[in-house]
Specification:
Rossmann fold; 9 helices; 2 domains; six-stranded parallel β-sheet; about 220 residues; alpha/beta
């Protein structure tokens, strides 16, 4: 059974690559279903669900709401409780999806399915400056604003994985493939990922043992 988890950084076409991998391997892509599950669990709109599934109740936030609750404001814990409910819904979707071949997009899938014998865990990375330039161009943003968004998103994704899975998202030992996205066209990334997933590169091999930082391609 083939399962591919794809982790990526803001400024990389991770969603596009994931969709292309799903098409190449004829596998369903698990992405929007996660937001749907959070919407249903919390009875909120799609935009709020998309934000809540990425919300990280940090140590500082937990301390703050605990102090407020002690002061007679128990409702202050609402966001933290909602975030935990959202994460429970996310995990349920991923675990159910992993019963069948699929491509799982983000959400710490690599950590949640770290011991899955049929999973190929992929990480797409690129220098912050390259990603900021692409983000600025695609969203018509000033470069300085794009750089701030990149920095904030990197920090939030790292905090998410650390909080919920007690892992470092930048540790290549968590992945079978770590690909330098700035050196590849999307179709080339798909070629490498599909080959790894279908030709036994990662089947039954713990992440990190087969880890490869690929840094060469067409100019």
């Amino acid at each position: 059974m083939v399962i591919v988890t794809i982790s990526w950084q803001l400024g990389i076409d991770g969603e596009r690559v994931g969709a292309m991998v799903g098409e190449r391997l004829a596998l369903p892509v698990v992405d929007a279903q996660v937001v749907d599950a959070v919407m249903h669990a919390l009875r909120i709109g799609r935009a709020d669900a998309a934000d809540m599934e990425r919300f990280v109740p940090t140590w500082g936030a937990n301390l703050a709401v605990a102090l407020l609750a002690t002061a007679g404001m128990p409702a202050a814990r609402a966001d933290v409780i909602r975030a935990e409910c959202a994460h429970t819904a996310v995990e349920a979707v991923i675990r159910e999806a992993a019963r069948h071949p699929c491509v799982i997009m983000g959400r710490g899938g690599f950590a949640l399915l770290a011991d899955h014998p049929g999973a190929c865990h992929v990480r797409l990375t690129a220098p912050a400056g390259w990603r900021a330039a692409r983000l600025a161009a695609t969203e018509c943003l000033p470069l300085e604003r794009a750089e701030r968004r990149i920095e904030s998103d990197d920090r939030n994704r790292a905090a998410f994985v650390r909080h919920y899975h007690h892992r470092r998202i930048d540790d290549p030992g968590n992945f079978h493939l770590v690909l330098a996205a700035e050196r590849f066209r999307p179709d080339e990334l798909v070629d490498v990922i599909a080959a790894a997933a279908t030709h036994g590169h990662a089947q039954g091999v713990p992440a990190g043992v087969a880890s490869a930082a690929v840094a060469s391609s067409s100019p």
